[in-house]
């Protein structure tokens, strides 16, 4: 399936899972109509791999940030390095940042420190943020109210309607990807239907969060076209309309994408 001008707002095209066939993966994405991929870093060291992918593939745009799952590997000095990365290559967002209460054994106090400090960097550079918020939405929102940033995306959103509205009121869009394509995801599918279309952006989180038709197989950005079609089917809309709307939403909340298009 191919749709025109799709934006994948969360693709880890730099990931090792794509080392054997990254060029082919990118080619399939382009053939499916995915013209733009936002590639977020997970650490300052990982920025090199993200930069390499974005230099090689013209449709890829970087985000710089430190992922909460890897909090044990982050050092306070990395925050200064993150600022240097922003100065050297202005990203579309600060990300992937946030909090995670799903993975056991992560130091939550340390997570909060790096999340809060990265919000300050986003505020200082007037950049949106890409948020990892697994089972930590309320804590994520608490910090967003303390440190205001120019919006962003709640990646892989899986919260309540009340939490969704809280993000929207703060200028955010909500990332929907493979998770809502599974029939058992009844609450998430209901949200995908009842939320205003202007609230939604599409993502794959490649190589993770595969859609239902892939089972446990590796996900990749080309699947975004069928994800868009699934959203259109649930909402009773034309897939081309969903593609246009979600891509416009992505460019509205990540203005650097509109500037580059």
Short note summarizing the structure:
The chain is of the alpha/beta class and 261 residues long. Helix content is 42%, strand content 15%.
Class per helix and strand makeup: alpha/beta
User: Topology as H/E string?
Assistant: EHEHEHEHEHEHEHEHHH
Total helices: the number is 10
Number of domains: 1
Shape: globular
Q: Give the distance, in angstroms, between the N- and C-terminal Cα atoms.
A: 23 Å
Rg (CA only): 17 Å
CATH architecture: Alpha-Beta Barrel
Instruction: Write the CATH fold name.
Output: TIM Barrel
The low-pLDDT segments are none
Q: How big a fraction of the residues is strand?
A: 5-15%
Describe what you observe in this structure.
This protein is α/β, with parallel strands linked by helices. The chain has one domain (6-260): Metal-dependent hydrolases (TIM Barrel), CATH 3.20.20.140. 42% of the residues lie in helices and 15% in strands. The protein has ten helices and eight strands. The chain starts with 5 loop residues before the first strand and ends with a helix. The mean pLDDT is 97. Belongs to the metallo-dependent hydrolases superfamily. TatD-type hydrolase family. Keywords: Hydrolase, Metal-binding. GO terms for molecular function: hydrolase activity, acting on ester bonds; metal ion binding. A divalent metal cation 2 binds at residues 132, 155.
SSE topology sketch:
Elements: E1 6-8, H1 22-31, E2 34-40, H2 47-56, E3 60-63, H3 77-88, E4 94-100, H4 108-124, E5 129-134, H5 137-146, E6 152-155, H6 161-169, E7 172-176, H7 186-194, E8 200-202, H8 224-235, H9 239-253, H10 255-260
Parallel strand pairs: 1-2, 2-3, 4-5, 5-6, 6-7, 7-8
Binding site for a divalent metal cation 2: 132, 155
Family: Belongs to the metallo-dependent hydrolases superfamily. TatD-type hydrolase family.
Organism: Parasulfuritortus cantonensis
